[in-house]
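Subject: two folds for Thursday's group meeting

Dear M.,

Sorry for the delay on this. The cluster queue was jammed most of the week, so I only got both jobs back this morning. I'm pasting them in the order they finished. Each block is the input sequence followed by the predicted structure tokens. Could you check whether the formatting survives your parser before we put anything on slides? The first protein is the one we discussed after the seminar.
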Amino acid sequence: MEKKIISKIKSAKLLENIFGSKGHWQLVEKMDEILIFLIQTKNLVNEEIDIIWDSIYLDSNAKKFTMALLSKIAIYFTESNYNYLSSKLSRSKSLLIKE
């Protein structure tokens, strides 16, 4: 069952659609359970973290809600997820400070 759910999430390009340019911050706000599921099943890969991270460049609402979401789910990250996101954060400090 778990594998079927993961397959559906990935084949539907759910993260790309929610966090992409056609996504909406209200949908981003609701993604915590899906992302936690992907993290706990060790199915959140760096390319998907990139998709989530890149949404902060879309507009101020996307940035605000994506950062809130990442803060909310950070406790669930694997060490690899955490290290990868930390490297992205450290390279983007100037972007995060400006608003």
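Second protein, same layout:
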Amino acid sequence: MDPNQNQVQNINQPTPQQSPKFLLPLLVLFVLLFISALVIFFAKQTSPVTTSGRAVSPPTHSPISIITKPAGSEEEQELNAIDLGDIDKDLQDIQTDVDQL
């Protein structure tokens, strides 16, 4: 037989697919790792435990006190000096625009 003809015959013949034997166990292993990672992730979100293993107690703080500056402070004077124009007229213009929609 001609060697070229053998090559043509070999190309035209389908080759049997060989599936690796380790593919299924590897796939099962990855699925188990993924599921266990999800369980650990969600378990850590719901449990109030610190890294030392002790339970976290809710914080006990006194009410927040607001520290204010005296009425004549420099910042307040600057804010009072800002000219905002006629705010009521601007709001009425916006209301008419909304009503037109």
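Two things I noticed about the second structure. Residues 88 and 94 are 10 Å apart (CA to CA). The chain has a mean pLDDT of 75.

Cheers,
T.
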